[in-house]
Every structure is written in C-alpha cells, then in structure tokens.
C-alpha cells in the first residue's frame, strides 16, 4: 500500500500511499461527503470559502508591489506560494470546498454514491463557499486592509477584479479547467501523504503553478471580485487606480455572476471531474468494481 515518495525524514524515507490506495480512499471520502447533513455541509462550506479567501488576501499583499522588486514571474510564484495557505487550511483544518469536491464524482462513477447526492454536495458547498468568501471580503473591507501599503492593496484588488470580469467567456472557462485540474491533483496527492508535512508539501506545488499561471478558481473569485465591487465605491481607491481596463464591466450580475463565475465554475467542474476523477477511476477504481 505504501511506497517511498521523496527525501528523508528523521533518518527514514518519507512514505505516501499508492495511487490505487488514494483512489480507494477518495471513493470512500466521496461516499461520506455525499452523506453529510445540511448543517455540517453548511458550516464546513462557509469555512472553506473563508479559508480560500484568506489565501487570496495574502496573494493581494504580494501582488501589490512585489513585481517591482522580483519581476513578473517570480512575484507570481511567490503569490502562488502564499495563496497555498487557503487549500492547506481546507485540507488540514477540515472544510468542504466545491472545487476539491469535484473528486467525489469518483464515488458516483464507482456506484458508491448517487449523482443526485454528488450534485447536492456541489450545490450546497458552492453556495456556502460563496457565503464564507464574501464574508471575509466584507471583513477585509471593513478592516480597511485596502489602505495598507499606502493604498496599493486596494489598487491591486480593484485592478484584479476588473481584469477577471473582463475575460472572454471561453478564456475564463479554459482557465477554470486548468485551475481545478491542478487543485484536484493537490487534494489527490495530499490524500496520499501520511503526515502533516507531507500533506503541506503535496499541496503547495500544484497550487503555486495554477496561481502563478493566472488560472481561474471560482471560490477565490468569490472573494476577489466582491472585494473589487466594494472598493469600486471608494473614491480614493478608484482615483489611485487611475484608468482601469474593465472597470465598467465590474458589476454584480453581468460582470461577476455571468461574466466570470459562470464560465469559471463550469471550467472548474470539467477540470476536476474529467481530468482527475474520471482518469483515475478508469486507471484504478473501475477495475475493482463488482461486475
């Protein structure tokens, strides 16, 4: 069941579970997640949205001025590293994240859960992720975090939100696929890690790559875009940002919900289900099903 992954720890090789065992655990986990009560799913969904928002807020800190010192590429890598905190909190502290829960499709593929149950989990996790992410956006706004760095945080947040809502539909969709392919791989590998350090190390590289590459994460955008919408009403931030491409498209319905969240969410589902859950079902879980 176990095999050596990388390096040494305390004189013994670090071990992780085999992909086949990860598939087995992910299937069982999906079965449990589908059976969660409304109350537990609501609470853990709000927490997941909040945790991702914390990582996103840290990303804004890096985004605000690091490129001046490190250049574009390295600043994006650093931003990805700090954003990883969000998924680390989800996995280690325990929460129900819509994007990571794309993997519970594996339990339905194995006939251990119903697709109706999977859909219920997705819908509730998604809604409560939004509640948690928008809540943190409101708290960050209320705490006037946007004034940090002489207002550079607010400018970065406003520009990022405007950029996201002005993406063409198919661009946002494909970036959503690429994002959740990597996010679900991070969750998959963390499932196979046998200790806390291993789980953290499994999460950081895929998340760093997706963030540095500018791929689109629906739950992160539930923080980024609402925060930008709040800041749009602050004259000092708007003035400091100057001419912002996409500023006029920064609206709640047409810009946020329809222009960004819809294509990104669809892309996230395709990335997690068709590029991670289904391939590993075909490779490992399907062969173990009863005929």
TrEMBL record:
Entry annotated with the keyword DNA repair: no
A Pfam family assignment: Form_Nir_trans
Gene3D superfamilies in the record: Glycerol uptake facilitator protein (1.20.1080.10)
Bilayer-spanning residue ranges: 41-62, 82-110, 122-147, 167-188, 200-224, 261-283
Compartments, as annotated in UniProt: Membrane
GO cellular component terms listed in the entry, alphabetical order: plasma membrane
Membrane topology designation: Multi-pass membrane protein
GO molecular function, one term: formate transmembrane transporter activity
Keyword terms, alphabetized: Membrane, Transmembrane, Transmembrane helix
InterPro entries associated with the record: Aquaporin-like, For/NO2_transpt, For/NO2_transpt_CS
Listed NCBIfam families: fnt (TIGR00790)
Family per record: Belongs to the FNT transporter (TC 1.A.16) family.
Protein name: Formate/nitrite transporter family protein
Species this protein is from: Candidatus Cryosericum terrychapinii
């Amino acid at each position: 069941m176990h095999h050596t992954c990388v390096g040494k720890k305390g004189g013994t090789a670090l071990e992780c579970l085999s992909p086949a065992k990860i598939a087995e655990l992910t299937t069982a986990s999906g079965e449990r997640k589908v059976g969660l009560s409304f109350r537990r799913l609501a609470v853990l969904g709000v927490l997941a949205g909040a945790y991702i928002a914390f990582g996103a807020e840290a990303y804004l800190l890096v985004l605000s001025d690091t490129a001046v010192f490190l250049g574009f590429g390295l600043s994006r890598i650093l931003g990805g590293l700090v954003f990883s905190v969000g998924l680390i909190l989800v996995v280690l502290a325990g929460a129900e994240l819509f994007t990571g829960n794309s993997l519970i499709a594996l339990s339905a593929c194995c006939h251990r859960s119903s697709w109706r149950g999977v859909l219920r989990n997705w819908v509730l996790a998604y809604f409560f992720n939004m509640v948690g992410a928008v809540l943190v956006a409101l708290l960050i706004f209320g705490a006037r975090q946007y004034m940090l760095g002489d207002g550079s945080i607010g400018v970065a947040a406003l520009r990022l939100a405007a950029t996201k809502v002005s993406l063409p539909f198919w661009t946002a969709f494909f970036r959503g696929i690429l994002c959740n392919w990597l996010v679900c791989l991070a969750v998959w590998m963390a499932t196979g890690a046998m200790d806390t350090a291993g789980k953290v190390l499994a999460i950081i590289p895929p998340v760093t790559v997706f963030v540095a590459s500018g791929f689109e994460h629906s739950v992160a955008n539930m923080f980024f875009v609402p925060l930008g919408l709040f800041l749009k009403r602050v004259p000092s931030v708007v003035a400091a940002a100057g001419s912002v491409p996409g500023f006029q498209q920064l609206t709640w319905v047409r810009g946020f919900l329809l222009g960004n969240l819809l294509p990104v969410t669809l892309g996230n589902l395709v990335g997690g289900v068709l590029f991670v859950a289904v391939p590993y079902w075909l490779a490992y879980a399907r062969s173990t099903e009863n005929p």
